Amino acid sequence: MPDRSEKKNYCLINGSFNADAARHVLLSLINHKINFHQLSDWSHRERFGKENPAAVKRVEELSQTREDIMQLLDQAAAMGLKLSIKSNIEIEMEPE
């Protein structure tokens, strides 16, 4: 059994990408997260008759992040630049 206080780190993305490949990788990830939170909100509305404020807030944050990343990707493409992308995920067990 793992130590409950131990943090685990995993490399999710690590590479150099042209703008089109970066767009595919990053927007696939962000769009999936947005869909997850939209579904969570929909489910909450169906069960309780009201929105899930945490899910709605997260959709707004992720939508803004998507817009910011698309602008960055457009700039990189216009300049013919590659993008170095590194993304780690940290997981730690905590009580509910």
Structure summarized in a few sentences:
The protein has a domain at 18-81. The chain has 2 helices and 2 strands. It has helices at residues 19-48, 53-79, and strands spanning 7-17, 83-92.
Would you give an account of this structure?
It is a single chain. With 96 residues, this protein is of the alpha+beta class. The protein has a domain at 18-81. The protein has two helices and two strands; from the N terminus they run βααβ. The protein has a two-stranded antiparallel sheet. α1 (19-48) packs antiparallel against α2 (53-79). The protein is flat, with a radius of gyration of 17 Å.
Q: How would you summarize the topology of this molecule?
A:
Elements: E1 7-17, H1 19-48, H2 53-79, E2 83-92
Antiparallel strand pairs: 1-2
Helix pairs in contact: 1-2
Relative strand content:
15-25%
The arrangement of helices and strands along the chain is EHHE
Number of strands: 2
Please tell me what the overall shape is: flat
What class do helices, strands and sheet pairing give? Answer: alpha+beta
